[in-house]
Amino acid sequence: MTGTSDNSITKARLAGLIERDDQWATLEALLTDSLSGSGRVALLTGPVASGKTELLHAFGEASGVNFVKATCSAFERDLPFGVVGQIFHPLDAPAEVGELLDAATRSADGPAARQLHALCIALLDLTAESPLVIGIDDVQHADSSSLHWLLYLIRRLGQAKVLLMLSETASPRAAHTPLHTELLRHPHCRDVQLTPLSALDELFEMPLHAEGAMSLSGGNPLLVRSLLDDQRLCKPRDDGGLVIGPSYRRALVSCLHRCDHHVLPVARALAVTGENATRESLGRLARADAETVASALDVMNEAGLLCDGWFRDPAARGAVLDDLSTQDRKEMYLGAALLLHDEGAPATEVAPYLVMADHSENPWMVPVFEEAAEHALRDEQIDTALRYVELAHRACVEVHGRAAIAAKLVRVEWRVNPSAAGRRLATVVPAMRAGQLSDRDVTSLVQPMLWNCQVDEATEAMERVRRTAASSAGLRAMELWLACSHPTLARRPQSEPVKTRMVSLTSGPMLKAVSALANVLTYGPNDSSATDAEHVLQAARPSDSGSWGPESAMLALQALVYADRLDVAAQWCDKLLEEARAKNLAVARAFFSCVRAEVSLRRGDLTTAFEHAQNALDFMPAGGWGVALGMPLGILINAATKMGRHEDAASFLEQPVPEAMFQSRYGLHYLYARGHHYLATTRHYAALADFLSCGELMTSWGVDQPGVVPWRTAAAEAWLLHGANRDEAKRLINEQLARLGPDASRTRGVALRLLAATNQPHNRPQLLQDAVVILEEYGDQYELARALADLSKAHQALREHRRAWTVARRAWHVANVCDAAELCEELLPSRGKADAEDAQAEEKPVDPIATLTDAERRVAALAAVGYTNREIASKLYITPSTIEQHLTRVYRKLKVKYRKDLPADLHSYLPSTA
């Protein structure tokens, strides 16, 4: 028989069949027996898409004898003798066979035994001289009339030259059919089983792809071939991994549709409910009994569609879901949600299904959405929480409940889009006025109201809360926050100053943060306020689960900034910014970028300040900042002015700002920055008006601290530059110095620089040198450059030219680091600047220790020999916190992390007291 040569096996391999040598050999043996006059039956069984059809067709074509085939379909089960007709049609049968088939087909009572006998004899007569191979694919779907005829034929194949090949998808249900019963009794029937492929190395060039394909397909030949097609047709992955494309998805869905009808509903239920679904829940969703579910799972596992009862890849699950219509998918998600709710599943499991079902029409869903929203807030999934609250609001029909949810919707949306939250207030304010909101809800609305310039509504809300909740912790925090941010609306009894209000260890982060800020604004920098602020930041997250969102952390950071703890504030800003970036929290990133910009501005790092302020407005556009726009915008104006970019500063001033901003702390930053722009562009009276406005507001609000904005020194500088009232300038400077006391600070350094301008030339150098020492200690590079520039001029006035030149060069270098281009040009204009740059290029690398200030060298030297911070503070008569700030800068400049890494050369700088 030529058809069973090696060439036949090669053809089968080319058809995509692998590891089928044993099955092929079995079929060859059966064919040999049938050609000798002993009919045989081969039952090809295996999971769906395991290659049964290909093996049946390939062997029939390669057999070398007459081959006829029939394909069964579940859609044609009601067509009598449909399979028999496919077999006789290609044969050269007498006309009476066709008439017999027509008569049997028209029989109302089904085929009679004589008709089956006649059709069987007709086939056997045709094969008396010419052997025949018959292939029937998917015989489990054959119509009942054809099955009867097959059973009749099988019992009469004893001496016929016929090989009957039947292919069938393995199924527990198929094992109990009459066909299987007859085949088990037949002595010449062989079961030819096809199992999934066990190795794919021959098909995939890369071992990694072969391994991945086996994991994705379970060895199912159809899925393997689809993966091969995806590698050929789809764009390769950047990492060189296996591509999972549309061919794989189509093939997997095709496999499910080719299984018994009970398999697909279970597969869809599994895709909807997830990996942890039980057989009971699958049965309820698929509307099938436990036995049917178990059978379906077994079928899918054996076919390689599942692995241990779950899809092998998310793409497989997605393909099953995509095969559903939109309406069917929503209904199944809703069914899953109802099922989980009935079983007592937590809201975090039920709510996602309701979202995917886009269904929120039943009252029982309201508490589910609300509880799920609280969990999402705690996990900092703000967008998810917002979606849940929106659905809860849609589902709620009770008036007071709906109003409370609307208030919560404002609070949650404020964290992702403050301006959108402001628009929602229009629906909440009427509910507040109708008494449908609790005191807690009303209190929570004050912040977004003021943020969005709704001052009248906020005032009304506060009056309501003050009448009904006079002693609540929420009202206490709100009053302090108003005193810090919107002082004109605050009502703080004079008999109970902020400093005496003790904040307990159990106080919430908002109360502790706002208390720390209030103490700094009222009484100036102090260690206890800085400690409270750090306590808040240690427990802070980029998005707090409380109603204040990330503002508690922002207030704590501002307390540190106003207290001149810039290094500590910078470290916390960087940490919180990174966390907010990782979680893609735009509002939190905007807040922390704004504070980080203020820190950089006060350090004189103008470029960094400008970049962070610009980032703050990129993360949250101007419309979202509301009344707080004065902070990032003020930093941009101030940084651009100090860098000499006056046109940029002027363009920022063209940005519209809300009028309510000027009655808030945020407006002070804007007025102060605008005043400096006016001062730099020789509009002295306009500048003075802005600085004095800051002073009037701060004095009337009871927050007259230079840590916010040092308006006295700014106004004094305006008078000095105008040259009209030096006495008033001197009075303001002396008043500022008196309020500061003996403690060093950035503002004291600036005040000493300006005071020198009001003194006789021979007194100026000492005052300016004192200013330089203080500004070096506090790390304000821009003000240090200005102090050095004034010191150079003072030496020049005293004809100390060499010393003036040396100081000017140092001032230029410091100004250049700040990117203060205008100041650089003033110090070493045109050719002088070029000479300085050339000289700088020729210099040898600078010793890192030389970059330290005198104060930093003394601290670093003592730390290098083993003194603790407290011991160093005692020896140098400064506070431990100042020691920490010095060491932070030392580590940064020397690029070390620990005391043990400090260079030994520092020993030569030990003070004599050591």
From TrEMBL:
<dbReference type="InterPro" id="IPR016032">
    <property type="entry name" value="Sig_transdc_resp-reg_C-effctor"/>
</dbReference>
<dbReference type="Pfam" id="PF13191">
    <property type="entry name" value="AAA_16"/>
</dbReference>
<dbReference type="InterPro" id="IPR000792">
    <property type="entry name" value="Tscrpt_reg_LuxR_C"/>
</dbReference>
<feature type="domain" description="HTH luxR-type">
    <location>
        <begin position="845"/>
        <end position="910"/>
    </location>
</feature>
<keyword id="KW-0238">DNA-binding</keyword>
<dbReference type="InterPro" id="IPR027417">
    <property type="entry name" value="P-loop_NTPase"/>
</dbReference>
<keyword id="KW-0805">Transcription regulation</keyword>
<protein>
    <submittedName>
        <fullName>AAA family ATPase</fullName>
    </submittedName>
</protein>
<dbReference type="InterPro" id="IPR041664">
    <property type="entry name" value="AAA_16"/>
</dbReference>
<dbReference type="Pfam" id="PF00196">
    <property type="entry name" value="GerE"/>
</dbReference>
<dbReference type="InterPro" id="IPR036388">
    <property type="entry name" value="WH-like_DNA-bd_sf"/>
</dbReference>
<dbReference type="InterPro" id="IPR011990">
    <property type="entry name" value="TPR-like_helical_dom_sf"/>
</dbReference>
<keyword id="KW-0804">Transcription</keyword>
